[in-house]
Design a protein that fits this description.
- Pfam families: GST_C_2 (PF13410), GST_N (PF02798).
- InterPro entries: Glutathione-S-Trfase_C-like (IPR010987), Glutathione-S-Trfase_C_sf (IPR036282), Glutathione_S-Trfase (IPR040079), Glutathione_S-Trfase_N (IPR004045), Thioredoxin-like_sf (IPR036249).
- This is GST-like protein.
- By secondary structure, the chain is an alpha+beta fold.
- The protein has a domain of 105 residues: Glutathione S-transferase Yfyf (Class Pi), Chain A, domain 2 (Up-down Bundle), CATH 1.20.1050.
- Helix content is 49%, strand content 8%.
- A 4-stranded mixed β-sheet has the order 2-1-3-4, with helices on one face.
- The longest helix is centred in the middle third of the chain and has 31 residues.
- 36% of the residues are buried.
Length: 224
């Protein structure tokens, strides 16, 4: 059994999605960031830096922080969604690290300046608008002609997808990025992703882009 300490953030969601994909038994504990519960003495015993997500693996007593490390640990523990060696393994880890070091921080700032404080700092808003588009262009280029980020579906996709699911908050129209849109919708259909998206509790359906008016196959899209 794994205890997952989490909240309704992209980093939290990618961990719950991963646990659902791996099919590993776990219990989710909501750490309400809006109430400052991450700074409680009880949670600091688990996460000294007051960050979510965190897991406690009761099979071996391991306490582990940082979502990228957690996904890698779960993949190695179960032998799934991460090749064991060779170039294929490093291709997956490359995109996990890209999300942790580039996509996540940039989009986190984009949420802050473009959605929550749109008039606070025009220069910062312009910077993160530009940087967000640059990262989407990188994703678009890479995903063109591919189903997933690194070969088969992997922890790379689990890591990146929850951040893209916040496209409305960072003012991105997914219809401008056809390859990203296709990849996003394909993953959104996975039952494990839909279950993980509701952890630690249901906050709303998975956001979907507007239907493409020139593509009749998209007319049946509904919120998941």
């Amino acid at each position: 059994m794994i205890d997952l300490y989490t909240w309704i953030t992209p980093n939290g969601l990618k961990t719950s999605i991963a646990l659902e994909e791996f099919g590993w038994p776990y219990q989710a504990h909501a750490i309400d960031l809006t109430k400052g519960e991450q700074f409680s003495d009880s949670f600091r015993k688990i996460s000294a830096g007051s960050k979510i997500p965190a897991i406690v693996d009761h099979s071996n007593g391991l306490i582990l922080l940082e979502s990228g490390a957690i996904l890698t640990y779960l993949a190695e523990k179960t032998g799934r969604f991460l090749p064991t060696s060779g170039a294929e393994r490093y291709a997956v880890l490359e995109w996990v690290f890209w999300q942790v070091g580039s996509l996540g921080p940039t989009l986190g700032h984009a949420h802050y300046f473009l959605t929550y404080h749109p008039d606070a700092a025009p220069a910062a808003s312009a910077l993160f608008t530009q940087e967000t588009k640059r990262l989407y262009e990188k994703l678009e280029l890479h995903l063109t002609g591919k189903d997933y980020l690194a070969g088969d579906y992997s922890i790379a996709d689990m890591s990146v997808w929850p951040w893209v699911s916040r496209f409305e908050r960072h003012k991105i129209n997914l219809n401008d990025y056809s390859a990203v849109r296709r990849w996003y919708l394909k993953i959104a259909q996975r039952e494990a992703v839909q279950r993980g998206y509701r952890v630690p509790f249901f906050t709303g359906d998975i956001p979907l882009p507007l239907p493409l008016t020139h593509d009749t196959s998209e007319h049946s899209e509904e919120r998941l």
